[in-house]
Amino acid sequence: MDDRHEPAPPALRVSDRDRDKALAVLAAALAEGRLDPPEHEARAQRALQARTTTELAALTADLPSPAPTRADRNRKDLQDWLTEWRYWLGGAVILSAVWAARCAQRGELTHYWPVTPLAVWAAVLIALAIWPRGSDEAED
Hints:
Elements: H1 16-32, H2 37-49, H3 53-60, H4 70-106, H5 115-130
Helix pairs in contact: 1-2, 1-3, 4-5
């Protein structure tokens, strides 16, 4: 049996953003009744005084992270949608390059056939943007 132990990674210093996230978890736990006010106050004070991520993680280790808000979900949906448009743009470049190579091979400009798959793809992306959301998000 190997008795060697790897050294633990050094604890990282916390940022204001890290503290704000921990305080948000503590506030949500208070609102849900998982913490009573005195315990919330004690943990919040320790969160404000924490210097390392290990100290901060210990304050919220026994609490679930809060569910994402509607604004968080909307921000993520927008990021995903914009990512899909970047894929569309990449597809447009590739299809146009294939079309241009074929035109160069023939020595004449032909019908721009990439317009059909690109139009269908764009229509799907636009439909996703304007389609009503499911009822699972109406709970907020």
